[in-house]
Structure formats: structure tokens, C-alpha cells
Amino acid sequence: MEKITSELIQKVKQVPIENFLPSRFKVSNGKKFYLCPLPGHQEKKPSFVLYPSNTYKCYGCLRVGDSIQFILDLMGWDKHNKEEFIEAVNYLKKYI
Length: 96
Ligand SMILES: [Zn+2]
Prior knowledge:
5 strands; 96 residues; DNA Primase, Chain A; binds zinc ion; single chain; 29% helix; alpha+beta; five-stranded antiparallel sheet
């Protein structure tokens, strides 16, 4: 298995979360609220906010995180599961 370096982790954290989002959004108070694509979501209105630091918060399901956490959330994976964490990093690596 390929080694996951801290440099690689820093690079994949820069992969824009926006690349994985549905395009529909609205702007409120200068923020873009997207439809939350994460599983188990009950909200029908946009509640997912992206920050310039490439982190997110969803005011519907209250998930927060960076691009790696976003893929983990999207896939229903656990960051404490080493194999799933590596899968998420490898998934994002394709978008560097
Ligand atoms: Zn959500």
C-alpha cells in the first residue's frame, strides 16, 4: 500500500470541496448556501456553507470538516478507520 505522507494530506486538503457539490445554491449574507450532498440529510433547502479555507459546515446536519472529512462523510466512512482514511486521500489525489 502506498504511503500517505503529510505533504500528500496537505495537497488533497486543497482540492476544492466545491468540485463535489451540486451546483444549486443561494447567497445569503454574502455566503453561498449549497444543497447538502451528505447522506442522511433531511433538509430540502440549501444549508451547506463553504469557507475560503476550503472547509465546510452544514447547518442542517451539523457536519463540519475539510476536503478529506467531506469525502469520508460522503462515503459514510470513519476517519478513525485507517483504511477508509487512506481511501479518502487516494480518492482526492485524483483531483490534485
Ligand atoms: Zn447536511
